[in-house]
Fold these 4 entries.
Entry 1:
Amino acid sequence: MKSGILGLLILGLTITGCVKKSMYEAQTLKLDDTQAELASAKDTLADLTDQLTKEKTDSDELRAELDKTNAVLKSTETALDAAKNRIKALEDELTNTLKDKAKLKESATKLKKALAELEARKAEADKRVREFQNLIKKFKKLIDAGKLKVAIKNGRMVLVLPTDILFGSGSAKLSEDGEAAISEVAGILKTIRKKEFQVEGHTDNVPINNNKKYKNNWALAASRAMVVVETMIKAGVKGKVLSAASYGEFRPVASNKTQKGKAANRRIDIVIVPDLSNLPGFAELKKAIEGK
């Protein structure tokens, strides 16, 4: 009996020992596995740590590169803004240059036109000087005899005949010497082609008194001018190139305070009417007047 119980105890202990050993071995294996997993985890952690460190280093390098790139970009933007401002300044300068060039071209065109007009005016002036000189030569005999003067008045060539030689005081009847002088002048004028002539009557400022035919100096000067025109037509000057005008006492050439001055103011002016169509700028003036 006792031996049987002892046997059971021994068997139990043996079984228990076997169980504990088996559990121990199992726990040992599990511990080994755990340690292995832990070691693997440590390796993985180490790898992750290395990778994180590398990534952090790469991130720092990338950030540094990004900062460098941003700095370059900012510098580039600054340079670009400066370039844009310079381009704008150059464009403005070019625009102003083109405007100045256009103004210069316009000024050159105007200057060229003005120069051409001056040359045309000079040519016309030279022509008129030659005409004046030729006129003096043609009338030299009458000028030397004191019957005629040749003058330039208001840009016009004028033959001046003192009325004291032509007419009596307060009269519009030509004297014999006066008629001869007018006929001689007309003989020369009819040889001048493409010109018109205006006969102007002038008096001094002495009022006409007790003259039933002429109530004032206007009428006397007008009558004298018409008599000269008629005499010139008789001498061969064509009527279509002649006209008559009266200025009375209102265009004196000298002072009426002296007898000499009054005598100078009593005169017949034969004006050689200038041809405006030969003057520079006449075409433009005509267009402006006609509204074309």
Entry 2:
Amino acid sequence: MDAPEVHPSARVVGAVYGQILATAIVATLSEDSAASASEIFFGVAVAMLVFWLAHVYAEAVAVRLDRDQPLTVPEVWRVAVQEWPEAQAAIPALAALGLGWVGVLTRDAATDLAIALGVVALFGWGFLIARRSRLSPWGTAGAVALNGGFGLAIVALKVIVH
């Protein structure tokens, strides 16, 4: 028996969650003034990998509970692929942090860029969701504001803590 097919909206859930998570991790790690851009890069990469693996495990357990036999390797692989958008969401932040690591940007500029990319992506997800849902212009503005608001809340918390 195959693992259930995943609706494309489930991948969006992972991507949006991953974007919020990656942005929050960058904001949190950047508060340690002793942390270098490379340390923040690896911190974000490892944290996102751990969260992705946790979601793969949790989803595999949930699928297993719905059946009488263990999942096969291809079924577990399918679950891992289905959860991959969560990890992919960190790629823009990691690219920005990589620029800090190699010295193209300062550490602070790299973390600021990583956070900005996360906020812009969240606004973009809000717009995409609104357009796909055929919302009115006001509904679109609300969806964009709601999604982008998560990113702006992360920035606000970073400013308050800093």
Entry 3:
Amino acid sequence: MNYENQTFSTFKNKREKEHNKPKGLKRSQCSALSPQSFDLSSHNFEKICSELLRNGHNVKFRAPGDSMYPTICDGDVITVMPIETAAITIGDIILYRHKAGVAAHRVIRMAKRDVPDFQPPALEPRPSVLSPQSCFILRGDAAVVFDDPVRADQILGKVTLVERECRRIDPYSFRATVCFKARRIAARLKRSILFQT
């Protein structure tokens, strides 16, 4: 291997490492949670997770289940970083809390829902005042139905990295996006065929 090829190879390896590194992740800011020590549906896991993310730490843990297949498989290690709800976009994979614990699913749609504000009883009936409140519609990549609407205060963080068998996978890469969209189109076609018969 001559000097030019060796230099290019070193530059390429360094560039790949930089590309695969999650943005803004510092070694001192990463906290790993082991599913062996916590049940992911437990209140303790949710509490520790939300506390770490609220304090600006990234959280890393082993994901159970196949609801996000093929983007996240059962047993993959995922890294979650804190995120402001204003920065969430369609296609992001969000870790959120729900009745049974926590889940990481993809944002399919964002909506404003109107919630009537509390009004003290009055002599004359007044029209209810409606205030817009953001909610997010999420679904697992392998799921057919949407999750219940997710409020902004339920959101814990955004999945930024997936590790599978010593490989680091960007869940927002071109390949992952194409795979997700192809699966979505196939699911829609399957549903339309089933409804026609």
Entry 4:
Amino acid sequence: MAEELLYLPKVLFNKRTGARAAIRGNEAHPDITGEMMLYPFQGGTLVVTAVRGLPENNFYALHIHDGSECVGDFTTAGAHFNPTGAEHPNHAGDLPPLLSSNHFAYMILYTGRFTPEEVTGKTVIIHEKPDDFKTQPSGGAGARIACGIIEN
């Protein structure tokens, strides 16, 4: 491996993401704003997500969806990004939950399930509930409360 994995990867400091999404809440959650940044890393993606204005201190499901727009109740964002047809929680777009504290959540994760290029044009969704990691097809995560379109 080119970089020591025990330290923050240098890609986080070069200011060049592979893709990013501006996240905004729906009409019922107008205070939600945030950003997801996707960096190419180790053949996959380093995902950095920061969100403020979440309604409660709670866990929130976070998924990449295969749709390309964030309109109305965000059903236009489609289903989970799942190019291999896997069952939940093995969709490529299934991510760990966000944990809100003081209405703010911040997370850095690595996934080898997709590259930034593969999800550019797709959407990121925050759901009102945590993912239960078993209910098909989407983890019983409830309504879509925030959405962002992934762009280069």
